[in-house]
Design goal:
Chain A: This is ABC transporter ATP-binding protein. The complex is a heterodimer of chains A (about 250) and B (about 250). Chain A is an alpha/beta fold. Helices cover about 35% and strands about 25% of the residues of chain A. Chain A has 2 domains: about 1-75 and about 150-250, Rossmann fold (3-Layer(aba) Sandwich), CATH 3.40.50.300; about 80-150, no CATH class. The N and C termini of chain A lie far apart (about 35 Å). The model of chain A has no long low-confidence stretch (mean pLDDT about 90). Chain B has 10 helices and no strands. The chains are: A alpha/beta (about 250), B mainly alpha (about 250).
Chain lengths: ~250, ~250
């Protein structure tokens, strides 16, 4: 299964009587960009907590890089909803944090962090503190931190939901640029259909709680993806269909 | 700028008013000495004051250090063992209702007249603000960052050293600042109990001699000492706390 980064089969989870996830199966291939769209409160964060090993699933299996990963932590690069940077660390020391947890000393990983900061236009900020950066810049730093965790699979939990439309479009461009240079396997959660279609190879549509996979959609546009693809008739049709699916989703 | 000099002007105004009042009312100087009387007394008693001040400074710093170390240990242990925290935290708070002045003589009975009971008095007044503030700070670290660290594979020790401890520093320093002023006050009380040297001892002697001018000198020294310890904490805080904290 060397071509599969993440393989989830029959995953269910509840908190007491509250069923959050119901028989979820999904797959992220190596170098594939997969999105999950679903209404708010459809258990997407729970899914990430399961993949990240914060929770152990009641039933079902999670495989990461072909290995059984139920309840195992430290196997993914993760970008949470808010940047969640450590305010007392400089930007470069924030970027190396995940590697540091894995046991790599800061001294060894800082040069790589600085290289990446330069690549994304943040080279002047390596020694700054998070509060000196704008929200969009902090998100970039949080993404670099996930990228430099050194894991193939990167999970992003609604990373751009707090940004305004202009900044969000800019961040899409930025993310695609980086990803096209350094092809990782990405699982991206959002409630924005257009965002999911624009970025992904495959989109999973989730229902309301308890969440199940309503539909799996393959996005047919070529890479590198152009920003104008949103005006393509196929794109418009897909967006219509996903919107209908989400609004018609039972309960 | 004007904000910085404002307190200095206020102090000078109070001193000037005090001086004017003693001159105009003709009040006896043994009852209320004027600021210049106090200054004269300080100059007159210089040598003995230096000895007493040094003794109190040493006692304060020893007691403060011991109190801070114990306060931090209590905070960390209670934070790491929630059951212990649940059991002991109410006791800790209740214990603060016991007036120091009431248990201090008991400490002398138990521990004698040496350094030990004096240090214990200072520890008793210092450790509480440090322990409570630090414990509070340790429990308030950002849950989202904690989730991030755990998902990235952090163990409990890394969660503590990389997130909880640094996040608790601002709260800890608030506790340290309170403890800094308390420590001088604790040292003076412990010297009242029985001591042959120290500003507390000096105060007792001057009180029996009705030397109000020298009492005022002693009070001024206590205030300056407290400010100095406070300043020391402030300096250490400036050097260790980096970046801006969202809370705490």
């Amino acid at each position: 299964m060397a071509d599969t980064a993440l393989d989830i089969t029959g995953l269910s989870h509840s908190y007491g009587d509250l069923h959050v996830l119901e028989d979820i199966s999904l797959r992220v291939g190596k170098g594939e960009f997969v999105s999950i769209v679903g209404p708010s409160g459809s258990g997407k964060s729970t899914l990430f907590h399961l993949i990240g090993g914060l929770l152990t699933p009641a039933t079902g299996t999670i495989g990461i890089d072909g290995a059984h990963a139920n309840g195992r932590r430290g196997l993914i690069g993760y970008m949470p909803q808010a940047p969640a940077l450590l305010p007392w660390r400089t930007i470069e020391d924030n970027v190396v944090l995940a590697r540091e947890i894995g046991g790599a000393p800061k001294r060894g990983t800082r040069p790589q962090a600085r290289d990446w900061l330069a690549k994304v236009g943040l080279d002047g900020f390596a020694r700054s503190y998070p509060h000196e950066l704008s929200g969009g810049m902090q998100q970039r730093v949080a993404f670099l931190r996930a990228l430099l965790a050194g894991r193939d699979l990167i999970c992003l939990d609604e990373p751009f939901s707090a940004l305004d439309a202009m900044l969000r479009a800019e961040m899409h461009r930025w993310l695609l640029d980086i990803w096209e240079q350094d092809r990782r396997s990405i699982l991206f959660v959002t409630h924005n259909i257009e965002e999911a279609l624009l970025l992904s190879d495959t989109v999973y549509v989730f229902t309301r709680r308890p969440a199940t996979v309503l539909e799996r959609v393959e996005v047919p546009f070529e890479r590198p993806r152009r920003a104008e693809v949103v005006d393509d008739p196929t794109f418009v049709r897909l967006r219509r269909r996903l919107t209908d699916l989400l609004t018609a989703s039972p309960r | 700028m004007i904000r910085k000099v404002a307190p200095v002007i206020a102090v000078l105004a109070i001193l000037a008013g005090w001086q004017a009042y003693t001159a105009i009312s003709g009040i006896d100087s043994w009852l209320l000495p004027s600021p210049t009387d106090v200054l004269a007394a300080a100059a007159d008693q210089r040598d003995s004051l230096i000895t007493h001040t040094l003794a109190t400074t040493k006692l304060t710093l020893l007691g403060f250090t011991a109190g801070v170390v114990i306060g931090l240990l209590v905070a960390v242990v209670l934070h790491l063992v929630p059951l212990l925290r649940a059991a002991l935290y109410p006791l800790l708070v209740t214990s603060q209702n016991i007036p120091t002045i009431a248990i201090a003589p008991l400490l002398v009975v138990w521990l004698g007249f040496g350094l030990a009971p004096k240090i214990v008095v200072i520890v008793l007044v210092c450790f509480f603000p440090v322990a409570v503030a630090t414990l509070d700070g340790l429990g308030r670290s950002d849950a989202l960052i904690a989730d991030y660290l755990l998902m990235s594979g952090a163990n409990r020790r890394q969660l503590f050293t990389k997130l909880q401890w640094p996040a608790a520093l601002p709260a800890m320093f608030s506790g340290l600042k309170i403890a800094a002023t308390y420590s001088v006050f604790g040292a003076i009380i412990s010297e009242w109990l029985g001591s042959d040297v120290g500003i507390g001892r000096y105060m007792i002697i001057q009180k029996s001699a009705f030397r109000a001018d020298r009492m005022f000198v002693a009070i001024a020294i206590v205030v300056l000492l407290a400010l100095a310890v406070f300043g020391l904490v402030l300096l250490v805080e400036k050097l260790t706390v980096k970046g801006r904290r969202s809370r705490g």
